[in-house]
Amino acid sequence: MTVLASALDTAAPEYAEHREAMLAKLAGLDTEHAKALAGGGEKYVARHRARGKLTARERIELLLDPDTPFLELSPLAAWGSDFAVGASLVTGIGVVEGVECLVTANDPTVRGGASNPWSLRKALRANEIAYANRLPCISLVESGGADLPSQKEIFIPGGAIFRDLTRLSAAGIPTVAVVFGNSTAGGAYVPGMSDHVIMVKERAKVFLGGPPLVKMATGEESDDESLGGAEMHARVSGLADHFAGDERDALRQARRVVARLNHRKAYGDPGPAAPPKYDADELLGIVPGDLRTPFDPREVVARIVDASDFDEFKPLYGTSLTTGWATLHGYPVGILANARGVLFSEESQKAAQFIQLANQRDIPLVFLHNTTGYMVGKEYEQGGIIKHGAMMINAVSNSRVPHLSVLMGASYGAGHYGMCGRAYDPRFLFAWPSAKSAVMGPQQLAGVLSIVARQSATAKGQPYDDDADAALRAMVEQQIESESLPMFLSGRLYDDGVIDPRDTRTVLGLCLSAIHTAPYEGARGGFGVFRM
């Protein structure tokens, strides 16, 4: 075995400094996650419970197999917006009757579970994950429909929710809807377009138009039960396949539906895997607080792969990018990890070849980000950095094996693209609290704007205001810094969650297991033209 040797000195003052900085970031992250866990707050949670109802996360817990993990996705959705953190929706991957499923649950303690623009984006991302990985979808429904004041941002793109349900079903991916309360107007199509529907007695309300709308539209007098109650749909309309006595009964029946799906993984169990040789807790002290300071990504790899066993590819060439082969929770993976931040022509060509090899062997790729982008300067432009960077991006774009990305540190510029950022459709993308992502670093961006403004003033023969320049640079740096932070980016669903570094191996293992539910095959050709 080629076990990685660790040079990490846990007694060094630098390690302690890095660890303290990471712990401080994690404390801030916990505070924001707590907002999502709190739902609509004590008042609305208490009112919900007084009605004899379970919360969204309690419903999920009862649905899942006991003592199995739940990989929550996008928990910080809507962070920094006018809407509640979490976007009134819980999504994630969990195991039901031994089957990995994509679960979504409306949080009715937040504005009655109404969907806002961020809820929509979160739900669409969940559907995308389910489709790519062939995961059965279970929708735990209780929502008043669209948040009407923001309907202009929801109505038109929101139709994709129903489109996705029909496409999932057409692809043979099961869809199950469990209706606990309101599922009205457009929301009625969630059970209407699901393969299996369970409704809770005297609680579920499914209709295109409620009694007030019916009265206004037709003059007809009606009540909730006769118009869209669970018993009516079970006995008369046939929309309900299963009639549940209460919420727990509905979740029990949902588990039985999944048990009878005959849904199987495309790949078998990879079997047991040896844990890393080094303590995952040490991941807290690896990434410097100042991302301009480089760190060795092998120290991270050694703490997440099986037995810390890593066969490095081209170790003496393109040394600011570490590439190599390993297994993670028994699954083979190829790893690309930034070492010193900058990507040169050698690193770009090395990455392109490595990605092609992974596709030849049908091996998923894991990208560990810490890059400031591709190198600039006359020497590097003349050396072909554009065409070589394009070669790497070409390879990433046309690779067909599953990709997983983790933003550990910086992820700037086109380097974010070459390392399979969000726009390049990784199956999953997570960030550490230390991560930052933007078109470039705050100081560089502010400096570029300053230089351009100064040159413009000179060309016009105008004096340049240095005090205004300093104020502009400070303002731009502050803006870019705040917009580069992981919570800001996660709030906009540019990742699938901000995770504790110590959980990286577990999170990647859960993702790899989900990925292996669907068959995949690497590209044997079909790459674009590589400019030589």
Description of the molecule:
- This protein is of the alpha/beta class.
- It folds into three domains: 1-37 and 270-435 and 498-532, 2-enoyl-CoA Hydratase, Chain A, domain 1 (Alpha-Beta Complex), CATH 3.90.226; 39-259, 2-enoyl-CoA Hydratase, Chain A, domain 1 (Alpha-Beta Complex), CATH 3.90.226; 440-484.
- It has 19 helices and 17 strands.
- Strands 1, 2, 3, 4, 5, 6, 7 and 8 form an eight-stranded mixed sheet that branches. Strands 9, 10, 11, 13, 15, 16 and 17 form a seven-stranded mixed sheet that branches.
- Helix 5 (155-170) links the parallel strand 4 and strand 5.
- Helix 4 (117-133) packs parallel to helix 5 (155-170), helix 12 (345-361) runs parallel beside helix 14 (385-398) and helix 16 (442-459) runs antiparallel to helix 17 (466-484).
- The two termini are 36 Å apart.
